[in-house]
Specification:
Pfam families: LapA_dom (PF06305). Helix content is 76%, strand content 9%. The chain is mainly alpha-helical. The chain has a domain of 72 residues. The chain is elongated.
Amino acid sequence: MMRYIRYAFLAALGIVLVSVSLANFALVELKLMPDELAGLLGFNFSVSLPLFLVVLGGVAAGLVIGFIWEWLREHKHRRQADVKKREVRQLEREVNKLKKKQNEGKDEVLALLDEAG
């Protein structure tokens, strides 16, 4: 059921994006700097693109920047999780070693029951 809702949402989003793209097909000129600053520096870069590409490109760039920012921000938490995983593995090995040492010389069946319980 959730899968169909997700597909319906994605289809509606696709229809909206296509209609917005078709409605905003006019060319706009993007400039690297304002004309006054470009006159002082002696160079300027400009490109003509359809308006929908500018808008959707801005949204996509914002998403990518946000994902990268969040990934960098969460680095500390991922590192802590890795340290804790290593500690757990080390403690599990130590517990298994102590169980084996405790069960040395015992009957194998009793040793298995001790390990299980």
